[in-house]
Amino acid sequence: MWRVAEVLVTHACDGPATGGSGGAAMPSRLTADLGPQSSAIDANAVMWSFFVAHSLSS
């Protein structure tokens, strides 16, 4: 049975914030539209901390 969670977490970045942490460089055709890549946030660590704090009970 699935449970509906009502949690919303947002993060704001000053400056460039496109791309995931540890990923390959995006092609220039994408960064032209999305903006430059940045490693300002470790997306893996942010997601992991969210799931640890909001784990589903068995």
Order of helices and strands: HH
User: In percent, how much strand structure appears in the residues?
Assistant: under 5%
Quote the distance from N terminus to C terminus.
11 Å
Class from helix and strand fractions: mainly alpha
Number of helix segments?
2
Number of strands: 0
Explain how this protein is built:
The protein is mainly alpha-helical. Helices cover 31% and strands 0% of the residues. It has helices spanning 28-34, 43-53. The radius of gyration is 15 Å and the shape is elongated. 2% of the residues are buried.
Quick structural summary:
This protein is mainly alpha-helical and 58 residues long.
Keywords:
single chain, 58 residues, mainly alpha, elongated
SSE layout and pairings?
Elements: H1 28-34, H2 43-53
